Task: structure prediction
Amino acid sequence: MTTIKIDNQDYDLDTLSGEAKAQLQSLQFVDSELARLQAQAAVLQTARMAYSNALQAALPTLLVGDTMKFN
Result:
């Protein structure tokens, strides 16, 4: 007997209707995708910071009052 807790209520999976099982499966899929996308967003934020830091390091150092013009 496998149970699942929803809103502090235990349910026996074997007794759930087909509709309830389908909704549960959809909810589990969405939760999984959200976790995957949150992890991917964290990786992208880390990469963005690294690229930003690399850009800052690659820019020419300007003295105070100096200006550069790029065409």
